[in-house]
Design goal:
It comes from Sphingobium olei. Belongs to the glycosyl hydrolase 27 family. The protein is of the alpha/beta class. It has two domains: about 350 residues, TIM Barrel; about 80 residues, Immunoglobulin-like (Sandwich), CATH 2.60.40.1180. About 30% of the residues lie in helices and about 20% in strands. The relative contact order is 0.12.
């Protein structure tokens, strides 16, 4: 497998002259003393939640992964993730069963439900599916909940390699407000770290490359010991597993802590295809600017584009709002995780996801920052990694057409510039003094200034 190659090719294609060696040097230079750089660029991929809820099966997963490898991997989307409750045999919707009966092994560790993932039978777990995904050139990710299964506590199952049992480490007062599967782990107990070590060892043995860990970021301080435990357990496996924390809103004041122990963290609750939710992400992404960089990505959540919600509907975002979504995620360098059902991927959505010049802003830019001008305007700028050019993103968040622009002096530019429209892929000529455009309601523009 060679999932790294597609990311390098994307960056090289979108940013002329940026070599893989230069990219590695930049990443490691900014990573400081980190032992190994995980997620030097914002992760890109697909996740099953927006389109399948709790219900995805192995057959569906293999179909989606095949399409992803063909349609999206050439543009850098390389993380394929099975979201919540893959261990629940009777999962059927966006509503969780009140009395779940999860599939577990003898040590209280969740395993794929064999009726949904037949290749997991006989103790194989996700290893066969992970291999199939790897063979397609992709990385394999799973969703997990914080804590120890309540079913394991009820049966008081042993913790692998210790004399402790699930009931010894369970914090029965630490429960998720929206999911009934788990108790929190009491990290003051010596068996707590051993339990986390055991589950991440299992994931590493399966070949997992990415873990989205839920019920972690809120309330943050209460869950911080388990965030640290997951990080420590990943390190103990020796496998480079990216850790993504969910849901938000992660408190900005804990930015220094969260970027030490995770590579991605949610900055909001679940994000869906509603304009007020998209408008709210502007402020959140602005607030997280100091903590954005190699190995450290504030996550504005998945892209609810295309066919969603168990196939019941297409995205409610207008075409202008869809472009605004992609423009904001690109200029703010949020991870790009597609949520729509790829089996129904239409040409317009594919074009939106695969514009190489726009993706290069997400993958290979620096100095990304907002500019505050006036109400109903949002403006961001950035610099390409390999040149003195500037990127400029202009947004109209109001309900009427509006001219949005920025003075070149606010970018530190003294003379005229050549302007290239990245969405259209064409030059717009030279401009002096100010770059401006009239945008439709909820519309956006993304330019490169040379």
């Amino acid at each position: 497998m060679n999932w790294k190659a597609s990311r390098r090719d994307l960056i090289a294609g979108g940013v002329a002259g940026l070599t893989a060696a230069a990219a590695a040097s930049t990443a490691h230079g900014q990573a400081g003393a980190k032992r190994a750089m995980l997620a030097p660029r914002p992760p890109m991929g697909w996740n099953s939640w927006n389109s399948f809820a709790t219900t995805i099966t192995e057959a569906q997963a293999r179909d989606i992964a095949t399409i992803m490898s063909d349609k999206l991997l050439p543009f850098g989307y390389d993380v394929f993730t099975v979201d919540i409750q893959w261990y629940e045999p009777e999962a059927s919707s966006y509503t969780y069963n009140a009395a779940p009966k999860p599939a577990m092994d003898a040590y209280g560790r969740m395993i794929p439900a064999p009726n949904r993932f037949p290749s997991s039978a006989g103790g194989k777990g996700f290893a066969p599916l992970a291999k199939a995904v790897h063979d397609l050139g992709l990385k394999f990710g799973i969703h997990v909940m914080r804590g120890v299964p309540r079913a394991a506590v009820e049966r008081n199952l042993p913790i692998l390699g210790t004399r402790y049992r699930a009931a010894d480490i369970a914090d029965r007062k630490s429960i998720c407000s929206w999911n009934p599967d788990m108790y929190g782990v009491d990290m003051r107990h010596p068996g707590g770290q051993a339990y986390y070590d055991s589950i991440f060892r299992l994931y590493a043995d399966w070949g997992v490359d990415f873990v989205k860990m839920d019920d972690m970021s809120r309330p943050y301080d209460a869950h911080a010991p388990e965030i640290e435990a997951a990080h420590k357990a990943i390190q103990a496996t020796g496998r480079p597993i990216i850790l993504s924390l969910s849901p938000g809103e992660t408190p900005v004041i804990r930015g220094d802590h969260v970027r030490r122990f995770a590579q991605m963290w949610r900055i909001s609750d679940d994000f869906w295809d509603e304009w007020p939710m998209l408008e709210a992400q502007f402020t959140r992404l602005e607030n997280w600017t100091p903590y954005r960089g190699p190995g450290s990505w504030p996550d504005a959540d998945m892209l609810p584009l295309g066919r969603l919600a168990l196939g019941e509907r297409d995205t409610r975002f207008t075409p202008d709002e869809q472009r605004t979504l992609m423009t904001l995620w690109a200029i703010a360098r949020s991870p790009l995780i597609m949520g729509g059902d790829l089996r129904h991927l239409d040409a317009a959505t594919l074009a939106l996801l695969t514009n190489k010049e726009v993706l290069a802003v997400n993958q290979a830019s620096r100095d990304n920052r907002p500019h505050f001008v006036e109400d109903f305007m949002r403006i961001w700028s950035a610099r390409p990694e390999d040149s003195a050019d500037h990127y400029l993103a202009l947004f109209n968040t109001g309900d009427k057409p509006r001219e949005v622009g920025l003075s070149l002096r606010d970018l530190g530019i003294a003379g005229p510039v050549s302007v290239r429209d990245l969405w259209a892929g064409r030059p717009l000529g030279r401009q002096t003094g100010r770059v401006a455009v009239t945008l439709p309601p909820h519309g956006s523009a993304l330019y490169r200034l040379s």
